[in-house]
Amino acid sequence: MTDSQPVEAEFVWTRRHTLIVVVICAALVLDTIDISVMNVALPRIKDHLGFSEAGLSWVVNGYLVTFGGFLLLCGRVGDILGHRRVLLAGLVVFAVASLVAGLAPDPATLVAMRAAQGVGAALISPMTLALLARTFPEGPRAKAIAAWGIAAGLSGAFGLIVGGLLTVGPGWRWIFLINVPVSVVVILGVLRWLDRDRRAGRSTQRFDLVGSVASTLGVALLTVAIVQSSQEGWDSAQIIAPFIIGLALIAYFVLHEGRVAKDPLLPFSLIRIPNVAGANVTQALVGSGMFAMLYIATLYQQEVLHYGPLETGLGYIPQTLVILATAQQTPKLVDAYGMRLTVIGGAIIAAIGMALLALSGPHGSYLVNILGPSVVIGVGMALTFLPLSLAAGTGVPDDQQGVASGLINVSRVTGGALGLSVVAALAAGYTNHQSKTGTATVTALNDGFQFGFIVAAGLLLLSAFTALLLPRKQAGAPAAG
């Protein structure tokens, strides 16, 4: 396959292309689902392995730190060494780490393997979008990325469902062990259906070692500070030190990339593309709202309504179905109204759903307080997936698709971690304030969750404003998608 215009004009979608999309989406789901799949299983893991309260958070945070920290570097590695080759390496790392995590005898082993899973996920995630951009020309690309966006959108809610089923069924260890056979199937699919990497021009590219170290450590330290802030508080040295060092490294990274690096890890020409910059800022805010919603709504159901893991997980099925149905119609909306209006509409709808969640009370119910708002949020979220994914890669050269995909995933994961941490900290702080005034425990918890939902709604409304950075109409998103 070449990149010449005649080939693109003669492109015909075949069964093989459908299988390529299925394989790539399966690889994406493997790493994105592991962000949320742990939430409903954490109480069981704590009891079985003897985690402390502070240590338990690192079952989730250990994954986010390495995932967010290595995304840019891994995206660039794929551009240089080949997207297919790096995808296979990531799947192997992810499978091995999942196997050891499933057999972990103690907390330290589990947290270490969660960090290793994060590295594998950072190798996988940027390659998925880059391979779609490489395989499909502009027109059919919208159809492929629509499926990619559906898979990404469904992963959060679907992870809670799977986590609940496995936790009350074969046990929490199968949350990890099930990744092994699935990874093997995906690896076989990659070997069978995806073209080998092209070698042309790759020898002229070099690794930006200094930029790689600065960006990876900087993002990782910022993520550590963010995810720990809800427990330690922003006045703690354990938060201030990594936060300041992380910011300093990011600042140096920007200076290095703009003035020193001959072959930069993050070419500034990429950020100057308006749709790329707008997509990343908006994705960070949308991700923060979505991460916060899944986390707080899950805690509300388990700690206030006293639902079990299975009940909580199954409660997200309607939202999952709504995301699937809405995402299938999103390409037509993008074609009719453009990326900007579609994302703005989606963000506002999601914010309304989040505000409805804030009406939940200590004696609420699933049908009254969870079902309707979660469905509304699902519609809003689905309307943002495709246009933001298209904007992040449209107009980007093939040899920068990996880093462009890594960048949008950094925005999603780091934005999600930041939003989750800020919302969780504010919710916990308000709960503590209510408790000190003599409010009953359940009511205080509910008040904190309500406040968290309001903050998350504000973040989603803010994303509607940043979506104004997106172009009114984006080529390459026809209704044929």
Would you kindly provide a written description of the structure presented here, covering whatever features stand out?
With 481 residues, the chain is mainly alpha-helical. The protein is built from 19 helices and no strands. It has two domains: 388 residues, Growth Hormone, Chain: A, CATH 1.20.1250.20; 55 residues, no CATH class. Helices cover 79% and strands 0% of the residues. Helix 2 packs antiparallel against helix 10 and helix 16 crosses helix 19. It is globular, with a radius of gyration of 21 Å.
In short:
The protein has 481 residues and is mainly α. The chain is built from 19 helices and no strands.
Give me some keywords for this one.
single chain, about 475 residues, mainly alpha, Growth Hormone, Chain: A, 2 domains, 19 helices, about 80% helix, about 0% strand, disordered N terminus, disordered C terminus
